[in-house]
Amino acid sequence: MALDKTKLTLGGGVLTFNGVDVGYLKSPVVYASKMDKKRIDYSNDGRPMTFRGSLQYGESATLKAALMELKAENLKIALGGKTISTVSGAQVTVADTNYTMTVKEGGSDVQAFFLGENIAIDGDAPVLKKLNGDALTEGTDYMVDHALGWIYRIPEGGIASLGTVEVHSAKYTPPASKTIKMGVLVAADIQALQFVHTNKSTGYTHTVYMPKAEVDAGLNLSFNDGDLIAYDVTFEAVDDYANNPTYPLGYYKEAGPA
Questions:
Q1: Which of 129, 157, 172 is the last residue of a domain?
Q2: Residue 182 and residue 81 share a domain
Q3: 153 forms bridges with which residues in the sheet?
Q4: In the listed set 126, 142, 172, which residue is the last one of a domain according to the structure?
Q5: Tens digit of pLDDT for each residue in 183-216?
Q6: What pTM, to 2 d.p., does this model score?
Q7: Per-residue pLDDT tens for 217-254?
Q8: How far is CA 108 from CA 102, 111, 154, in A?
Q9: Between the CA of residue 109 and those of 102, 143, 152, 153, 240, what are the distances in Å?
Q10: What long-range pairs does 130-136 form, CB within 8 A, spacing at least 24?
Q11: Residue range 114-120: average pLDDT?
């Protein structure tokens, strides 16, 4: 049975789009519905206006979460194959910046500092100097792990143990990331949105359903360890009276243990 609730704070739970489990909304999750009404006052004989009732002229429903974690592949399936785009990081230029060697695993002789992944080679290879301006030489004083972004001290070279050096010039490019602009996901994409929170203490399930929904146009998802994450996400129900006249904006319901 659908219930008339205006604002509820729920725990975390499973999120589905179009019947596909796409991920998880973390607590707190807030469901809010609002009915806008206009006051009707009138008088036809010159006396003060009197209240005669109210007229409903709009309603809304939203589902908000502080953090959303989505499964990239499941999201793609739910959205009918919409791709997750790969966005390359912009190249970063470093100039006249000091870095200090730190001890890495493997003993005190293994010292390095992190510059940035995908360090450029050839003409843009890093140029290091001592703080007094003396030149340092790659292969003699230091080694560069171009892929992982570390610059290592060679113990027999001219860099003091745990010493500080100047990166006179260098370039690196952060690795590509995966993002999807959530603002392009309109009601045609997100149909049958459902969020289910199960209270482990009582066994009750709390379900929010929206036949169609849109998401904040400014929201992007970023790729992290195989999942997509977003902060402060808001889904808003879209009126679907043509297909769901009873609950055009969806509903909230709760059910006891099976």
A1: 172
A2: yes
A3: 142
A4: 172
A5: 555 556 777 899 999 988 888 899 999 998 887 6
A6: 0.55
A7: 556 566 555 567 777 788 888 888 888 888 888 889 88
A8: 9, 7, 12
A9: 10, 13, 10, 8, 67
A10: 130/158, 130/159, 130/165, 130/166, 131/98, 131/164, 131/165, 131/166, 134/158, 136/165
A11: 89
